[in-house]
Sequence to fold (272 residues):
Amino acid sequence: MWIDTHCHLDAHEFGAESLAVAQRAAAAGVSMIVIPAVERGNFGVVAQLAAAAPNASYALGIHPIYVPQAQEEDLVALRAAIEAALADPRFVAVGEIGLDFFIPMLCGPAMREKQEHFFREQLRMARDFDLPVLMHVRRSQDQILKHVRQMRPAGGIAHAFNGSFQQAQIYIDLGFKLGFGGAMTFTRALQIRRLAATLPLAAIVLETDAPDIAPAWIHPGRNSPEQLPAIGAVLGELRGLALREVQAATTDNAFVALPRLRTMLAGGHAQG
Fold:
């Protein structure tokens, strides 16, 4: 069993193919795909897609890139959506949330402040409902860690991790897993590959972020969750591990990061 802990299966790049892509991923051994929401407008979309695909689950949140147009009432709607989703076994986390201080339009003082406000409020929801978070962390490792230390959500995943070893250890100490995907497959990505090779295996989960962050062999094409086993093979090569060891460890790590995922699969709500 492979678990893709972060895949935007609802993205427009997939068009009408989303369910077919999920089916191909299942045939490749990807037994679960976690689909994070990015804005209020797609809360229902990700839930419906997860209900339609036997090997899918979902998270609810407001992505930092969508914060500029977001309103306070979107946070109210998110809290209500999370509360309602608790009865749905396919709902597993709050996400995708976080901070992005790379895109110029998000870096002005007012927008940084708004991002941090939305991030803190969503961390608060995760804490209130005892849910893990899927976090977008771009040029914002230290700021993310500051808020996480203060709010103390129930763990989760630092998506597309690209920080330092020291920052990685802080995430681990706070109960988080670190997401690795297509970026790790590029030989020039020296720091990411060093992290993937030397961090504790128990801290690593796999993801595609499809349709983005395509692995080296299909870059710059559209990424897909069916690429996850091959991405896992690269992790195995970097660490000198057999593929079955990578598969077993990263799957177990995903269950630790997202406990509702284990419950859902144990309850027969998904394809094994």
